[in-house]
Design goal:
Length: 480
């Protein structure tokens, strides 16, 4: 798992290390790593033009020390202090000793820069760029220079990924010790560019439980169910899919398509589209409903394209097996029916559905996704997978790390792809995964399938995402 830690945790780990090391040792490590990445990006350091945007804190100090290292290798380095009088004194002295200078005209040096180091704010920044930093940041972005953010793009909220105002979009972010939540969660993530992690010796002093974790191929491979010699279709799990309506018959087909490729031994479809489902997928068991009369299942997925069938949602939530609720199911559910459950529940809203469940505006969810997913999970006592540009998965117990899906791709923003995801995650639930793991594996496979389907750079449909799921399993298994 890739992990991310909150500022408070990073600071106490840093303090522990600083107590054992000579003064400035940590900052020098950070700056050396930063300078190495800048040199790599410049290709030829000698004769290159580098501008340092320097804030009042240690983030500016990192930029100054890295600038000094580049100046020693022959770069022309100019510092632009944004809080004159509060510039890191030792860093500034090091830069001057190495032949760097303080810019007389920031806009002139920015106009001809090859590389800009953004050291305005790091983990100490709050509330977006301040007014005096904004014209300089805009000039940097408007130049042809490569922009390298120090630790974080300046102007983002490190712990939440929120952007409360303006921030400076980077091409590359060099982060120290460990990822911060803002590097994994939109909207901040989108401003970080490529993230490079520099080891400053922090890992051994960090707590074992991070704020966020983001799975990789081998983590997902370890979660996927595998049939054994004793397996039969019932032991592998039967997933019940309650989806589709006269108005949205396609949702039933897409949810079943996802469910058939999720590892359960059988898919039992319940609803109005039974005929269309068997015609397209003859391996499906079908029933007209209601769900309670449809036969045994090990998990239910209810909601995609369901229309107004509130009774079906209520009936499924009254069952004693794991239940996934998506789409119309989220609109129709009664909160008490969820909080009363003893078997696990997985809710899979997009930002609009999450906003309705929380009683807030959609923008509020989109700008503060981490807070929204945690709040939903706590309030409903359920695992919540919040879909969108960054998909997040939270458990009701707030001490458990929120998982961030790294595989999402904007190609998934196509009608019906959420239906495929519900079927797939429901199937993994039926196969015995916990809602937390089923959601994690489903989001990952779903994103990877979309990437595979869109490999040629052509638009994809949700049916194609479902068809690429076996290739995604194969890919994950092959590496994991
Ligand atoms: N600790 C360590 O050992 C190591 C730390 N390291 C580095 O230190 C960084 C953290 O340094 P930090 O704590 O000094 O905070 P930092 O991010 O520089 O910014 C705070 C300053 O900015 C100001 N400011 C705040 N908001 C602002 C805004 N919106 N717009 C403009 N200004 C704003 C605020 O000023 P004030 O509010 O007082 O006016 C304050 O002075 C960390 O990210 C990493 O790069 C590495 O070297 C590894 C070792
Ligand atoms: N910009 C984006 N980047 C990455 N993934 C996205 C983006 N927009 C949507 N998605 C993904 O696409 C899927 C859409 O699901 P949903 O909103 O339920 O749509 P639908 O109801 O049409 O099926 C989700 O898996 C979501 O995470
Ligand atoms: K920065």
């Amino acid at each position: 798992m890739r992990t991310a830690y909150r500022v408070e945790t990073v600071r106490s780990a840093e303090a522990e290390l600083i107590a054992r090391l000579p003064e400035d040792a940590l900052m020098r490590r950070a700056a050396a790593g930063l300078a190495a990445v800048c040199a790599e990006l410049l290709g030829r350091v000698y004769g290159s033009r580098v501008v340092l945007l320097v804030g009042a804190g240690a983030n500016g100090g990192d930029a100054l020390y890295a600038g000094a290292a580049l100046a020693r290798r022959g770069a022309g380095v100019h510092a632009v202090p944004l809080a004159p009088g509060r510039t890191h004194p030792a860093g500034l002295a090091a830069l001057i000793r190495a032949g760097g200078r303080v810019a007389e005209d920031p806009f002139a040096v920015l106009a001809s820069a090859d590389l800009v180091v953004d050291g305005i704010t790091g983990i100490g920044g709050r509330g977006g760029l301040r007014p005096d930093a904004i014209p300089v940041a805009r000039a940097a972005r408007g130049s042809n220079a490569v922009i390298v953010a120090v630790d974080l793009p300046s102007g983002v909220e490190a712990d939440s990924g929120e952007v409360l105002g303006e921030a400076l979009r980077a091409d590359v972010t060099v982060t120290f010790g460990v990822h911060k939540p803002a590097l994994l969660i939109d909207p901040a993530r989108a401003l970080a560019g490529t993230v490079r992690l520099v080891d400053i010796g922090l890992e051994p002093v960090l707590p074992s439980v991070p704020e966020l974790e983001s799975p990789q191929h081998h983590d997902v491979a370890a979660l996927l169910p595998e049939p054994s010699g004793e397996s039969d279709k019932y032991r592998r799990g039967v997933v019940g899919v309650v989806a589709g309506s006269a108005r949205y018959p396609g949702a039933a087909l897409l949810a079943v398509a996802g469910a058939l490729r999720g590892g359960a031994g059988a898919v039992r479809y319940v609803g109005h589209a039974a005929e269309a489902v068997v015609a397209r997928f003859p391996e499906t068991l079908v029933h007209a409903g209601p769900p309670a009369k449809a036969g045994r299942v090990q998990a239910w997925a209810v909601g995609p394209g369901l229309g107004e069938d509130r009774d079906a949602v209520r009936e499924v939530l009254a069952s004693g097996v794991p239940v996934l609720v998506d789409a119309d199911g989220l609109r129709l559910l009664d909160a008490g029916d969820v909080t009363r459950r003893t078997a696990p529940t997985l809710l899979t809203p997009h930002a609009g559905e999450a906003a309705a469940l929380l009683g807030v505006a959609r923008e509020e969810v989109e700008s503060a996704r981490l807070a929204a997913v945690r709040e939903l999970a706590a309030r409903y006592g359920a695992t919540v997978l919040l879909k969108g540009s960054t998909t997040l998965i939270a458990e009701p117990d707030g001490r458990i790390p929120v998982r961030v899906d790294p595989m999402g791709t904007p190609w998934l923003a196509t009608a019906g792809s959420g239906d495929v995801l519900s079927g797939l995650a429901g199937s993994l639930l039926a196969a015995g995964l916990s809602p937390y793991d089923a959601a994690t594996a489903a989001a990952y496979l779903h994103g990877l399938a979309a990437r595979i389907a869109a490999a040629e750079g052509v638009p994809i449909t949700s049916s194609e995402v479902a068809r690429a799921l076996p290739a995604a399993w194969h890919d994950v298994r092959a590496v994991g």
